[in-house]
Amino acid sequence: MKTEQNQKVGFISLGCPKALVDSERIISRLRAEGYAVAPNYDDANVVVVNTCGFLDSAKQESLDAIGEAMAENGRVIVTGCMGVEESAIRDVHPDVLAVTGPHQYEQVMEAVHDAAPLSESPFTSLVPPEGVRLTPRHYAYLKISEGCNHRCSFCIIPQLRGDLVSRPAADVMREAEHLVRAGVKELLVISQDTSAYGVDLKYAESHWRDRSVRAQFFDLCKHLGDLGAWVRLHYVYPYPHVDEVVPLMAEEKILPYLDIPFQHASPSVLKAMKRPAHDAKTLDRINMWRDICPDLSIRSTFVVGFPGETDEDVDYLLDWLDEAQLDRVGCFQYENVEGAPANALPDHVPEDVKQHRFDRFMSKAQEISTKRLQEKIGKTIDVIIDEVDDEGAIGRSKGDAPEIDGAVYLNGDTEPTPGDIVTAHIKHADAYDLWAIRED
Ligand code: SF4
C-alpha cells in the first residue's frame, strides 16, 4: 500500500460529551503521529465515525452517518458505543473497513495505520500537552472516570463500558492544569457517575505538585477549584456526600451548578428504573443545598412513559417539579434500548399517552423556567463569552452549561472576545435565555 507523509483523517463525532472526549483522545493520538485532520470528505484518506448506541434513534443516526461517509468517501472506520454491535453495522454497511467499540483507542489507531499508513519517517507535528480539543478554546470537558457500577433498567452503558474505573486524582489534576495553562476558562467535569468518583480506587492517593491528592469527589472538587477556572459538575447523583461540595459552591470555589439526572420523581417508577439514590429524600436535600448556596442552579433530565408509569406517577412528578423548582430540565419519551432489562417490563405506555405526558411535562417545565429567569432581571452576573459577531456577544451565566442550557445575549456589544468573563446587568428574560448589558 502507498504510504504518505500527509495522510488526512476525516472525523465524525456523534453522541454525548463523553464520546466527544473519546474523539478528542483519538484525534490527539493521530495528530501526535503525524496525521492531519481533513476538513471534508474529499480531502480525507479515511474517515473515522465515532458512533452513539444508547437509544434506537441514536443508532439510526449513527447508521445514517456511516452511510453518508461511505457514500462520500468510501473508506470508513467505525468506533464508539454502537461499535459493540458489529453485525448490526455490517448488515447495513458491509464494506466498512473496521468496527471497534468505545475507548478502543489502540484498535482505532491500528485500523487507521492499515487504511492510511504513514511513510517511514513521518512528519510528526507537535501536539500541545493538553491534546487536541473539539470544543472552543475556552472550555473543555474533563473526563474523570469510565463505566458505571449501577444497573439502571433502561440503560446498557455498563454493558458497553463496564464497571466504574476512575482515573487517579493526579492524572485528572495534571490534565486540568494543562488545560487551564492552555487558556481554558471553564472545566466541565464528566463521567457516568461523577459523585462515585474514586470508589473503585478506594480513594487512593497519588502525587500531584508537592502533595498527595485523594481520588475522592470532594477532594477533587476542592483541588480543581484552586486552579482558577470555572468548574462545572455534570452527572452527579443526590448521595449524602454531595452535601459536602455545596459549601465550595457558596465560597465560589466551583460553580454553583449541579447537573443531576433525576429521570423521575415517583418512587415506584424510580424503583422500576433501579436508579441510584432512588430512595433519597431529594426535595429535602435540594432545599438544604439552596439554604447553603442560594445561587445554586440545578439542571436535570427526565423520562416520561417508562413501562408501568401511571397518570398518578406523572401527577406526582409534576407536583415534585413544582416543589423542586429546578432551573433547567430536559425530557425524553421512553424508548426501548436493545439489550436493556426495561424492555421486558410489563405495561408499556402507548405512544400517544407518552406524547401527552411529555407535553404536560414541558409546559410545566417552561412555566418554572420562565418564573426563575424573570427573578434574575435586575441582577448583576458574570457571563462567559462564547461567540461574538456583528450583532453582539453571546455568552452564558454560571448557571448555564454549554450546548444544553440557555444563553445570555449582549446585543450590540462586539467588544468582548470568546473566553472573556464579563460582568453584566440583566434586563430581560424569556423562558430559556437572558438579555443583559455589560457593566463598565
Ligand atoms: S447511572 Fe444508570 S443510567 Fe447512568 S450510566 Fe449508570 S446504569 Fe446507566
Write up this protein:
The chain is α/β, with parallel strands linked by helices. The protein contains twelve helices and 20 strands. It has helices at 17-33, 56-72, 86-92, 105-115, 157-161, 169-181, 217-225, 246-250, 267-273, 282-292, 311-324, 351-374; strands at residues 8-13, 36-37, 46-51, 76-80, 98-99, 139-143, 145-146, 165-166, 186-190, 205-208, 211-214, 230-233, 257-259, 297-304, 328-333, 380-389, 392-396, 408-411, 421-429, 434-438. A five-stranded parallel sheet has the order 2-1-3-4-5, with helices on both faces. The protein has a five-stranded mixed barrel with strand order 16-17-18-20-19. The chain has a three-stranded parallel sheet with strand order 6-9-12, sandwiched between helices. α11 packs parallel to α12.
Shape: globular
What kind of sheet is the major sheet?
Answer: 5 strands, parallel
**Backbone CA Rg:** 23 Å
Which structural class best describes the helix and strand composition?
alpha/beta
Describe this protein with a few key phrases.
440 residues, alpha/beta, five-stranded parallel β-sheet, five-stranded mixed barrel, 12 helices, 20 strands, binds iron/sulfur cluster
Blueprint (SSEs and pairs):
Layout (H helix, E strand, L loop, with lengths): L7 E6 L3 H17 L2 E2 L8 E6 L4 H17 L3 E5 L5 H7 L5 E2 L5 H11 L23 E5 L1 E2 L10 H5 L3 E2 L2 H13 L4 E5 L14 E4 L2 E4 L2 H9 L4 E4 L12 H5 L6 E3 L7 H7 L8 H11 L4 E8 L6 H14 L3 E6 L17 H24 L5 E10 L2 E5 L11 E4 L9 E9 L4 E5 L2
Parallel strand pairs: 1-2, 1-3, 3-4, 4-5, 6-9, 9-12, 13-14, 14-15, 18-20
Antiparallel strand pairs: 7-8, 10-11, 16-17, 16-19, 17-18, 19-20
Helix pairs in contact: 11-12
The site of iron/sulfur cluster (SF4) has 10 residues, from helix 5.
